Amino acid sequence: MKRIALFVLTNLAIIVVLGVVTSLLGVNNYLTAQGLNVGMLLAFAAVVGFTGSIFSLLISKPMAKWSTGAQVIEQPRNAMEQWLVETVRRHATKAGIGMPEVAIYEGEPNAFATGAFKNSALVAVSTGLLQSMSKEEVEAVLGHEIGHVSNGDMVTLTLIQGVINTFVIFLSRVIGYVIDRVILKNENDAPGIGYWASVIVLDIVLGVLATIIVAWFSRQREFRADAASANLMGSSRPMINALARLGGLEPGELPAQMQAMGIAGRPSGVMALFASHPPIEDRIAALQSGGR
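Given the sequence above, the corresponding structure tokens read:
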């Protein structure tokens, strides 16, 4: 529920803030005396929908460092840090991307990758993961995160979120206009309370449904990142072992805004629809069927 609540609050905050900005710029003049200007509404929806998601992408690295307390390895202080940096460098070179920043944060077993650009990403692992896994398993997890970066998952997820946001904002206002004019029969030039109440409710309801679509894509990208790790390692066995070990551990809980970037999650029941990660057993089965 925390992820749904965070989405709803963030979505409403973005709509309010950008709604004021676009009002000042004249972008949201889609309600006219002649009716609903669909073209102007679509422009407004796209501005609000994509601006929020793109802004989130651009600040993803500093937000990740702040929310997890991740410390970037500027200069390795010990053999483990040296090994981490060199392993990430080796994976990045093989994947054909620039060297990401490498960071460590305190916490239970987990890892994540984020960043707006392939050649300047961030890969972070928790102390719990380093302490509970063999080097080969950690290397496989790092390969998984590099897979996210090389596949451009952060950018793709942002674009999908922007498209989904656009449709949510567009549809909520079209439906709200119909409710206000047709059902409640508001004949004034200005929209009535029925329009504004409908828009608020529909932004929330459609936003929750949109989250299910975005979460579905996020789950699919986990399978691709697992496969990327197998390719980088030359075998699926290390990633299978890492996932099996995670399945027996309590995965570290990342801050809500970072959950889609992590390595592990445990969806169950209805909440599985909103989960950013598929069940570990499904991921292991997919790797095993890959024949590597």
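The longest helix spans residues 193-233. Try to locate this feature in the token string yourself.
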